[in-house]
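In the previous lecture we treated proteins in isolation. Real proteins rarely work alone, and many bind small molecules. This record shows how such a complex is specified: first the sequence, then the SMILES for S-adenosylmethionine.
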Amino acid sequence: MNQASPRDFDKVAASWDEKPQRRLLAEAVSAAIAESVHLHRALQVLEYGCGTGLCGLQLASKVGWLTAVDTSAGMLEELRRKTRDLGLENVTPVLIQPESWTLPNAAYDLIFSSMVLHHIAATETLLYNLSQALRPGGTLALADLQKEDGTFHDDPTGVAHHGLDPQALITLLAGLGFTSLKTRTVHTIFKERGADEHGYPVFLLTGQKPR
Ligand SMILES: C[S@@+](CC[C@H](N)C(=O)[O-])C[C@H]1O[C@@H](n2cnc3c(N)ncnc32)[C@H](O)[C@@H]1O
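The predicted 3D structure, ligand included, written as tokens:
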């Protein structure tokens, strides 16, 4: 298994939004987050692995401030352009290098990510770091592929996990003290595989950091 390289995402950034299935997925994930979390204009929110902002820009106008971090300068450039075009003033794109970037402590009311966990080998470390960055009582919302047979990505470069088991994530988060842990399927991505169409379910897991 290998880690995602920022350059791989830089190369596809300009055309990232062109695939309708990515936009549909982001709509489903953002809608599910908005259903599960009480969003309001006082919330400080972090999106981890924001890409071009397909999810984040749907939620930005419903929250106070959105800090959108990613390792790919190209993806963030697209996000900056879209943010300008939409006239949004409450979005801060931040380029990070996970090895040298320290998440601020207890800074966010909501942290969410979509389709990022499967690119990161050290799941446990990431969950711990995100948990530290949440305020007591804050919400974590993680969307990703459910465990799949390895056929989802046409190019497996940068894929650390063939999907994830949401129940295993719940166990890890419960170990960090999270409560109200819930998971549900919020979307299914369909791809042609050989003569068949293969469905890849996407879960949204939510949980609350203890007060
Ligand atoms: C599959 S894309 C999803 C982008 C966006 N969330 C969406 O739903 O369209 C994965 C994103 O995670 C970013 N990424 C990969 N590894 C990362 C890491 N270790 N930390 C933060 N972001 C990362 C990539 O640059 C890319 O933008």
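Summary for your notes: The mean pLDDT is 96. The helical segments are 6-12, 20-36, 56-59, 73-86, 123-133, 166-175.
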